[in-house]
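JOB MANIFEST
job_type = single_chain_structure
chain_count = 1
residues = 230
[input]
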Amino acid sequence: MNRGTFLLSALLVPVAFVSLSLTSCSGTQGISPTDLPQETLRVISARRSDAALWTGELEKTRLSDPVAHLSGLAPSVEPSLYSAAVMVPAALVMPSLSDFGSLDLSSLPASVRTAVDGFCRLVLAGEDARSYMAEGMLFSLVLFYADVRQYGRQLFSADIPTPLAAESVPRPFFSAYIIGAPYAGEEDMEVPVRFLCADGYIDCALFVTMHDEPQIQQIRITGGKRNGKD
């Protein structure tokens, strides 16, 4: 191969490569402007909104109208959600003792309360309380005092006097009493009572008949505690 032939071959190779490259690119699919969406989302949304059937606005001025004055609210107080919430009557929170129960006596009939109060006052005074016992139930009062004496020795190291004994002068031992929320049964009502003394307390349950003249038919000691003792 002479020098001229070699130069001619060197020139033809690049030209052929460029030709092939152009042919390959011309076959690529391009994106035509006509293929792009002609409407924006805003235009589409506006058109659909115009085509929709809308109802008239209800209570247009409800939120802007002034609120009428609330009954029971002082004229100087501006009606609002907060002032209205304060006026809602809240449920009563009744006191209670963690080791005794609720002190809510709203369900205790007045006649039963009278009988319980009368009995407890006589116990506090150290006097005979048999007048509040139901007929034939005096033995329950006797057992009650026997249990009280036993608890007195165990808890307070004290000999609690028994008013049923032949003692001419009453000797009070308890200083106060607390009545708890009652439990109503079909024929009677259980009323918890706590008798307090200087050194602690003794708890009991009075079972009172639900008749026109309530009477105590049973007394049961339910516990006791000396002050400062767990």
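[summary]
The first strand starts at residue 96 and ends at 97.
Helices lie at 3-26, 41-51, 81-87, 110-125, 138-156.
exit_status = 0
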